[in-house]
Write a structure and sequence with these properties.
The chain is an alpha/beta fold. The chain folds into three domains: 17-242, Vaccinia Virus protein VP39 (Rossmann fold); 259-302 and 419-484 and 580-640, FAD/NAD(P)-binding domain (3-Layer(bba) Sandwich); 346-414 and 486-576, D-Amino Acid Oxidase, subunit A, domain 2 (D-Amino Acid Oxidase, Chain A, domain 2), CATH 3.30.9.10. Helix content is 28%, strand content 25%. Strands 16, 17, 18, 25, 26, 27, 28, 29 and 30 form a nine-stranded mixed sheet that branches.
Length: 643
């Protein structure tokens, strides 16, 4: 069942938590819901008795290659930490855990730490959760623990809304929202029906509440419910199992596909798209190889000396803006984890010394920024420029106060070194360079790639992530239509001793960022390629391209930088774009996938879309919701053409 993107920002609630300790007793109380998170006698013992032991997690972890747990009400993270600890102690090395948790009133890292510190036996799990915890932004946040063996999807959104836009197959459900009488919005019939739809065969559920409305809702959705003696002062708790004969439901989803069943995966392209996908599949122990026509990785549009990472939010609430927001956090975590962040303030802890500045290039952009400020996005995501913004402290005198509409500060955003990032993602992944794929065919149950010498390369799964090369490889086929066009971009390279000194990267229609060697990247010009146009060499940057890049600079930056093209070098590459300027990601045939059309936003969108394709190949939960999947569907152009 598809879910439309909300036409308003997703506002997160403050749980108004109060934490008190009386000897060994810890009470975590939410004034928002007028209810406690767990029993004051022992939250640890209650979670074990209500959730962990009744769902037989230890046995599941020992016997299953992948166990998927869905929790409605992440709360303090106690249930996750207990499941994580048990998994680490009982699961074989090849096993994996996927934990999906919705939370509409997320706690801060300090609040979670204050609660979990009461349980020293979970010290390591607490530290790991705090280290992985994403910012308190609405949306879907996928993080990894234990070298990717454990995937945690923290979805900061109402649980019912999360489920309506999701399509996964949970083996176990933890129903841990506040009691129905205090939190009635969660415990509705549509939640139970979505649970059944998002369940694997013989899925089980557990909850602290045995309220009649909950039991009836679960039974109506197809769960066989058993009532048990409750923990502490609670009279009853419940467990349930999903019956396979649910009328009108889709109970009985297939299990995730094993690495051996998937077989050989070939990725065409070694830029940020192909590298992100290779890393996502290698994390799942999939047999993957990358093929690229260039002599090295990141030789095309992913090879600039610096690139920006920031979300492209929309003034109205669109699927595209929602995708960019969710993709940004995932990409930023990946780049920083790989050591590819540029600048002294590069990190995921927002502060005055970190981030990126966006200046309004014209009145239209200034109006768009004002609309963004009027929305309910957290200030830790972006806010207007003020006197404390680092760029102002460096003496650039950016517009602020009464002219605040002319710029925004994104504390978590920044610049990355694309080559460093791509090569880090490909570490340990087999790659073959100088291989030009001229033809793709799919006879019977195999996929055959033919290279420039006429040699065939066999594969079971193929992902085309070849940038502008996608159009030539897919050809003029009607299903699906993949209207990829090329846009040549020129980036000017300014020497490290140039006049301008900036403390943060800046975006202004173009961009200015300092590279790892101290030089500056100023970009980027746009020139749409026509059929038959020569792409040109990588280092071929014209005087006109330098002039175009310089002309984009706002006056406040031109005051500190003279036009000196004789001292400038540069680089050109071709970006692959689509008519609606949105990426293409997904299956286009049996075992054939595509990831392309990223334009100038590949450093933001590629990692999350690659993770989505990897999840699709393995039939695992997607990091995308229904709205995001629609936005990047490869068949959308065919549908618009009436095919």
């Amino acid at each position: 069942m598809a879910c439309a993107m909300p036409d308003h920002p997703i506002s997160l609630h403050d749980p108004l938590i109060e934490i008190t300790r009386d000897g060994d007793r810890l009470t975590a109380y939410s004034r928002l819901y007028d209810d406690i998170y767990f029993s004051s006698a022992s939250g640890y013992a209650e979670s074990m008795a209500v959730f962990i032991e009744p769902t037989e997690l230890a046995a599941r972890f020992k016997s299953s290659a992948l166990t998927t747990i869905a929790e409605l009400g992440f709360g303090t993270g106690l249930n996750f930490c207990l499941a994580l600890s048990l998994f680490r102690h009982t699961a074989p090395n090849h096993a994996r855990l996927h934990y999906i948790a919705a939370e509409h009133a997320p706690l801060t890292a300090d609040q979670i730490c204050a609660v979990l510190s009461a349980y020293p036996e979970l010290h390591q799990e607490c530290d790991d959760v705090i280290a992985a915890l994403p910012p308190r932004w609405p949306g879907r946040h996928r993080v990894f623990l234990d070298q990717g063996r454990i995937t945690l999807d923290l979805i900061y959104q109402d649980g019912r809304d999360m489920l309506s836009g999701s399509d996964f197959a949970a083996d176990v459900w933890f129903l841990d929202g506040f009691t129905p009488s205090r939190n009635p919005d969660m415990w509705q019939d549509d939640m139970f029906s979505h649970m059944a739809r998002c369940s694997a065969k013989n899925a089980v559920c557990a909850s602290f509440t045995a309220a009649g409305s909950v039991r009836r809702g679960l039974k109506q959705a197809g769960f066989d419910i058993t009532r048990h003696a409750g923990f502490g002062h609670k009279r009853h708790r419940i467990t349930g199992v999903l019956l396979n004969h649910v009328a009108g439901g889709v109970a009985g989803r297939s299990a995730p596909v094993s690495a051996s069943d998937i077989g050989r995966v070939k990725i065409i392209g070694a830029g940020i798209a192909g590298a992100s996908l290779a890393a996502a599949l290698a994390r799942r122990q999939i047999d993957v190889e990358v093929l690229d026509a260039a002599p090295a990785a990141a030789d095309g549009a992913s090879g600039n000396i610096a690139a920006l990472q920031s979300p492209r939010l929309t003034a109205s609430y669109t699927d595209h803006g929602w995708l960019s927001h969710n993709a940004f956090g995932f990409a930023r975590r990946s780049a920083l984890a790989m050591g590819a962040g540029l600048g002294s303030g590069a990190g995921m802890s927002a502060g005055k010394s970190a981030g990126l500045i966006t200046l309004a290039k014209d009145d239209r952009e200034a109006v768009r920024q004002q609309k963004l400020l009027a929305q309910a996005w957290p200030e830790t995501l972006f806010h207007s420029i003020d006197d404390d913004t680092p760029a102002n402290q460096s003496g650039l005198d950016l517009p602020h106060n009464e002219a605040a509409q002319n710029g925004l500060h994104y504390p978590y955003a920044g610049a990355v070194d694309p080559r460093q990032w791509v090569n880090a993602l490909l570490q340990g992944v087999p790659c073959r360079y100088g291989v030009q794929i001229h033809h793709l065919s799919a006879p019977q149950n195999a996929i055959i790639l033919t290279d420039q010498y006429g040699d065939d390369i066999a594969a079971d799964v193929v992902v085309i992530a070849a940038g502008i090369g996608l159009s030539a490889l897919w050809g003029k086929r009607l299903e699906p239509i993949l209207p990829i066009t090329g846009n040549r971009g020129h980036v000017s390279h300014l020497p490290a001793d140039t006049d301008i000194k900036i403390s943060l990267p800046m975006s202004f229609g173009g961009y200015l960022a300092q590279a790892s060697d101290g030089s500056y990247a100023l970009g980027a010009s746009y020139q749409r390629l026509k059929d038959g146009d020569d792409i040109g060499s990588e280092n071929e940057v014209s005087l006109n391209a330098h002039k175009e890049n310089y002309a984009r600079l706002p006056d406040v930056l031109k005051q500190h930088l003279s036009f000196s093209p004789d001292q400038w070098q540069g680089r050109q590459s071709v970006r692959a774009t689509t008519p609606d300027r949105q990426p293409i990601a997904g299956a286009i045939g049996n075992g054939i996938y595509v990831l392309g059309g990223l334009g100038s936003r590949g450093m933001v969108t590629a990692p999350l879309l690659a993770e989505a394709i990897a999840a699709d190949i393995c039939q695992e939960p997607s990091p995308l919701d229904a709205a995001m999947r629609r936005a990047v569907d490869p068949f959308r152009f065919s549908r618009r053409a009436g095919l």
